[in-house]
Amino acid sequence: MRKSYIWLLLIIICSFQLSGCSRKIDGDAKLDSTAKMVNKAMTVEDYPSCIRPGNYLGVAVELPENKKITNEDIQEQIAYALKGTGESTLTSQNVKAVSGYDSIEEYKKVIKKNLEKLNESSQQNELMNRAWDAALKQAVLIKYPKDMLDTQITQVKAGYKGYIGVFGKSYEEVLKYFGVTEEDIQTKALNYVKSDLLVYAIAKAENIAVNEEEYKQEVKQRIKFFGVATEKELADKMGNGTDLHFVFLADKVMQFVYENAHIGEEVR
User: Fold this and answer.
1) Of 186, 205, 204, 203, which is closest to residue 148 (Cα–Cα)?
2) Predicted confidence (pLDDT) per residue in 157-179, tens digit
3) What is the Cα–Cα distance from 77 to 112, expressed in whole angstroms?
């Protein structure tokens, strides 16, 4: 039986399925200094009024550098495959047992093809992120709900706290390791709030929604992918009770912006 490239395929799947959840944001993005915090409770219906989307249709997106597959890349994957086999070097005698393929040449061709697929999916994911960053930069934040900001601050801090025991013995030591301040955390959290509000605004303007059938299908696929049993376990697995409906909506909105972007144009 041929050796499965599950680890490669999982990365490819992640790059597509988790794009909305990751919500990559340009680290240099600046927030609007005139934006006001709203202390009273707001509903999802109110969110589009918090932001002026700007021209999110036809944003210019530069192509990322096309990474070429090198012999070193292929050798790295061979070394990975050899782990746990008791073999230190791939030979014509053990290639069948290690990979399931009849020759080293055939095995290398398969590795190269899989790496090319990975590069292609990674490039598309990067283009989607760049398109969203471009749309986000054009949007103007008018106001933002305090509860949304508080939630994002908690989640950003939880991300750093996850490194306790790896890069330090305390939360403060982790922040010091990464060179991050509490002000940096608030800025990052507010960027996430702005991104979320833009999702809602574009969804309303373009009549983008996640219907019940789409929701069930996405939940089914991701439950299988993450190896959990329930929606709640899936939400917890994706990050402390993640709003799955919003994740799926963000995926659709980001895909919409990407599909309408001018790919390959110089960003001015």
Assistant:
1) 186
2) 988 898 898 877 899 999 998 89
3) 10
Q: Which DSSP string do the residues of 65-134 spell out, in sequence order?
A: P-PPP-HHHHHHHHHHHHTTTT-SS--TTTHHHHHS-S-HHHHHHHHHHHHHHHHHHHHHHHHHHHHHHH
Helix (H, G, I), strand (E, B) or coil at 140: strand
Taking only the tens place, the pLDDT of each residue in 34-44 is 889 998 888 89
Give the C-alpha separation, 196 to 193, whole Å: 5
- The crossing angle, in degrees rounded to 10, of helices 146-161 and 171-178 is 90
Sign, CA dihedral 37-39-40-43, equals positive
Q: What pTM was computed for the model?
A: 0.76
CA gap 127, 44 in Å, rounded: 28
Q: Contacts by 182-185 with C-beta closer than 8 Å and gap 24+?
A: 185/153, 185/156, 185/157, 185/160
What mean pLDDT value characterizes the chain?
83
pLDDT for 119: 83
Are the beta carbons of 134 and 260 closer than 8 angstroms?
Answer: no
